[in-house]
Amino acid sequence: MSTPLRVLMAQLNLRVGDIPGNTSRVIETALKARDEHQADLVLFPELALSGYPPEDLLLRPSLELRINEALERIKSEVSGITLVLGYPRYVEGALYNMAGVIRDGELICEYAKQCLPNYQVFDEQRYFVAGTQPGVFEHQGVRIGLSICEDIWHSAPTEQLAEAGVDLVLSLNASPYHMGKELQRAEVVAQRARQVSAPVVYLNQTGGQDELIFDGNSLLISAEGETLFRGAHCEEALYTASFDPATGTLTPEQASVPAQALEANVYQALVMGVRDYVNKNGFPGVVLGLSGGIDSALSVAVAVDALGADRVEAVMMPFRWTSSMSVEDAEAEAKALGIKYDVISIEPLYDSFMQQLQGQLAGYAPDTTEENLQARCRGVLLMAISNKKGYLVLTTGNKSEMAVGYSTLYGDMAGGFDVLKDIPKTLVYQLSRYRNTLSPVIPQRVIDRPPSAELAPDQTDQDNLPDYDVLDRILELYVERDYSAQAIIDEGFEPADVNRVIRLVDINEYKRRQAPVGPRVTERGFGRDRRYPITSGWKAGI
């Protein structure tokens, strides 16, 4: 009678570059898996020792020494359980994205990732050499095949495992989040399970890393492609499963985490992204401008949920065009959230700047220069608070505004992290309504009123932009799906709107290059995901 193999999935939030710290987490978790969960095998994420993505840290001369020291430490401090973990590894001068199997002080198997992604946010071909051979080892009579992240999205590595006759597949992943990604993964892993005729243990890491979000959502998939278990979204967790060699069945030992609605899913990702960026970079807290508008209202709510009210400070910076409604609503939200709140008028700063500039500006009619100066006064105040207190300035621009340049360099763009950088305006409204279902902190009239930068009398965003429902759909087609101008027009949009929006997107690349990082939640975010030249003669059209 065969003995079931108990596998523990360690869905961890690791820190890029902290090889000693990550090694300690691996050791601590392995011992816990052995002693508290009676696991025979513990699975860790892709590149667990270095964190993912390590980017050009992989080029540091001491990388090889540090990884070798980490592996030796694991081999010496852990026994009585098998570890499967990821790390970068030099072999004969070539660097591989490796998965290793360690048991009682011995490295019994290594597998080099074969499919190196080089699209969207990935550039693994910059660093790694692709492997060519399957990784298969035996444990308690079970033939186990290894797969690393992108490998599972292609059929060839799985075909090798099928030919090798494996009973079980372990997949180590650092798969970034975007909306709907967890459903795509489940479909792909199901295809591979059916292809190899074996269950798949799919482990994904969690945590925020600069603009990337890793959402967890680890999976257990049967040989028939059925989803047996889905792990938590954007949370650390340890999950166990039992594999029966006699029947080839994989059985989860806990219930699946229920699927979330889109708004809850995205909101939780934003919270984790803010929390990890602030905490992993050692900031004591954050400060932001609270304008009475919906973007800053949602941003401050995310910040409080991520860090706690005692680590969040907001400043209302009114000007002569700021409505009393905005002042009242900003104060109401600050009180509802229990954060430190201050009001600093920018009138004296603005007047002083204008007085000093009167010679330079003489003879010119008022235009956006005066509007931008208001935003820059606010940026100076926030950065001064940041410098003095060590707080990170959170900016509040959304993806729709960033796309068309509806923002001010060194003004509302001044800061270190943009909570809503990849959130279209229409989604901002959805998330705000969702947040109020948890507890009502965003005044309803902030959600209901027409959006305005309040940089001029009676100003609204739609004075200069199409309605956001129209704008966001055009932006999705152009930015995320690469439609041409004509193809977007063919979808039923007004040619004047399409051509104007595309022109604004193209000419504002220089602004986006200077914008803070922010959490990526769409399939193509601005930054490392979408890279267009600033200086270009390209003309939009067909």
Automatic annotation (TrEMBL):
Q: What is its EC number?
A: 6.3.5.1
Read off the InterPro entries from this record.
C-N_Hydrolase, C-N_Hydrolase_sf, Gln-dep_NAD_synthase, NAD/GMP_synthase, NAD_synthase, Rossmann-like_a/b/a_fold
Q: Where is the CN hydrolase domain?
A: 5-245
Catalyzes what? deamido-NAD(+) + L-glutamine + ATP + H2O = L-glutamate + AMP + diphosphate + NAD(+) + H(+)
What keywords would UniProt list here?
ATP-binding, Ligase, NAD, Nucleotide-binding
Q: Give the matching NCBIfam families.
A: nadE (TIGR00552), PRK13981.1 (NF010588)
The UniProt similarity line reads: In the C-terminal section; belongs to the NAD synthetase family. Belongs to the NAD synthetase family.
Its biological function? Catalyzes the ATP-dependent amidation of deamido-NAD to form NAD. Uses L-glutamine as a nitrogen source.
Name the UniProt record assigns to this protein? Glutamine-dependent NAD(+) synthetase
Give the organism, scientific name. Answer: Marinobacterium maritimum
